[in-house]
Each structure stands twice: as C-alpha cells, then as structure tokens.
Amino acid sequence: MIEVKNLRKSFGKLEILKGIDLNIHKGEVVVVIGPSGSGKSTFLRCLNLLEQPTGGEISFEGQSITAKRHDINVTREKMGMVFQQFNLFPHKSVLQNIMLAPLKVKKQQAAEAEKFAMELLRTVGLEDKRNAYPAQLSGGQKQRIAIARALAMQPHVMLFDEPTSALDPEMVGEVLEVMKQLAVNGMTMVIVTHEMGFAREVGDRILFMDGGVIVEQGTPAEVFGKPKHARTRDFLSKVL
Ligand code: ADP
Ligand code: MG
C-alpha cells in the first residue's frame, strides 16, 4: 500500500531522515518506536507530505505521491492522521467536528454524513456526546473523537503520532482500545507510540528508529524478545 524508497528529509543543513526504505502492506499495523528526536514524527509527516521530503520517493496505492504532478489533496483524503494534540475545532460540536470534512471535502449530503458520524460515535463509544463541545470532554474522549473524525473520510490508512502521550494515565487505555479495534477490523495503521505493551500486542511489525534511520525491524517477538542491535537493546532497557 505504501512504498518508501530512500526517503530523506533535511531542515536547513541538518539531515533528519537519512534514507528510509519501507513497504507497508494493506491491513498491516506498523508500530514505530525510538528515542525522542530520532525522526519518528518527521517520517510520519512525510508519508502524507505534511513535510516535503528532500530526497527519495513515496508511493501510495501504486502512485508516486512525491512526483511533481501528483495532487496530494486527493491522497490525503485517504490517509487519516491523529496527533498528540487533538486539534478539534473548539467552536463546533462533536457531531459537527466529525461531519465537517465529509460535507466540505467529499460533498456528502448532510443526512448521509450525520448517519455515518453517528455510526463512528458508536464505534468509539461516545454516542451520548454528539452535541457536546470539545471543552466539555476529557482528554481521552477528545482523542476518541479525533479518531472518529479521521475515520469519517473513510481513509485507507491511519497514521497516529503518539496519540496517547498528552493523556492522563487513566485515559490511555480507552484510546488504545479504540485503536486495537481498528486494527482487528483490518485497518492499515502506522503508529508512533511509547506504549510498549500495546506495540507488542497490536503491532504486526515493529520499527526501531534512531538517528534518522530504521535501525532494526521485525515482529514484536523479534524486536522485543531478541533485539539484534545494541542501540535497540539500550532503548528497550530504558522503556520496558
Ligand atoms: P521524534 O518524533 O522522533 O521525537 P522529530 O521527527 O519530531 O523526532 O524530530 C527529529 C529532529 O528534527 C529533531 O531534532 C527536531 O528538532 C528536528 N525537527 C523537526 N521538525 C523540524 C522543523 N520543522 N524544523 C527544524 N527542525 C525540525
Ligand atoms: Mg515525535
């Protein structure tokens, strides 16, 4: 579904991504772990061109999205993204937040958009919050709404950048549970997280990034159980 070849990204003279090669298959759950500053967010943001790569190539569903003539807006509709900060529209209700992009971008009919939004609210367990405003929600609820909002565009892949890092500990579980259900239902996902238990349980593949490269990758059993590289072992010894 996604092919990344020799992806590079520099900010000024500083090279942050130093040649990343990766194929992500349909239905696969790829979890990216690694120390702060290793380039995880930059990598995720390059996948949907929130950051413009300075080298290499990215293809999505067989089309080069880094080619000059590619219309990235069409591709972005198929890539949902969830950030650490929830970025909900504060002056819109939960339902309006979820319906906005389907109405504006997909030109859906209001009735159709609302029906799907309600379905998504059921999926994330927040039907009763349909008329609430973001300020009335807990952090965990806001993040579940942010996930529902991304799903409203019926993306083919979901990108998560530390979706639980800004949450109080007691709210982490409810968000991870929603993500786990998505994974079980076959969603293709790329997830940056420090939740190692979740990574182990839900990830099909773990990527360990450090210094702008993928140092090591494998199944959770391989990476967590028998890490090959000293840098991976060192990182895991600090977080496990
Ligand atoms: P991670 O998500 O693994 O913590 P990031 O991808 O956020 O790492 O950042 C990797 C490096 O790139 C950091 O040193 C960061 O300061 C730098 N960086 C990220 N975004 C920018 C930017 N827009 N301009 C300059 N440097 C940046
Ligand atoms: Mg980051």
From TrEMBL:
Organism this protein belongs to: Paenibacillus rhizoplanae
- List locations, semicolon-separated: Cell membrane
Q: Which Pfam families match?
A: ABC_tran
InterPro entries, per database record: AAA+_ATPase (IPR003593), ABC_ATPase_HisP-typ (IPR030679), ABC_transporter-like_ATP-bd (IPR003439), ABC_transporter-like_CS (IPR017871), MetN_ABC_transporter-like (IPR050086), P-loop_NTPase (IPR027417)
Matching entries from PROSITE patterns are given as:
ABC_TRANSPORTER_1, ABC_TRANSPORTER_2
Which GO molecular function annotation, any one, does this entry have?
ATP binding
The ABC transporter domain, residue ranges: 2-236
Provide the topology term for how it sits in the membrane.
Peripheral membrane protein
Q: Which family does it belong to?
A: Belongs to the ABC transporter superfamily.
The record's annotation in SUPFAM superfamilies points to: P-loop containing nucleoside triphosphate hydrolases
This protein is called Amino acid ABC transporter ATP-binding protein
Question: What taxonomic classification does the UniProt entry list for its organism?
Answer: Bacteria, Bacillati, Bacillota, Bacilli, Bacillales
Keywords for this protein: Amino-acid transport, ATP-binding, Cell membrane, Membrane, Nucleotide-binding, Transport
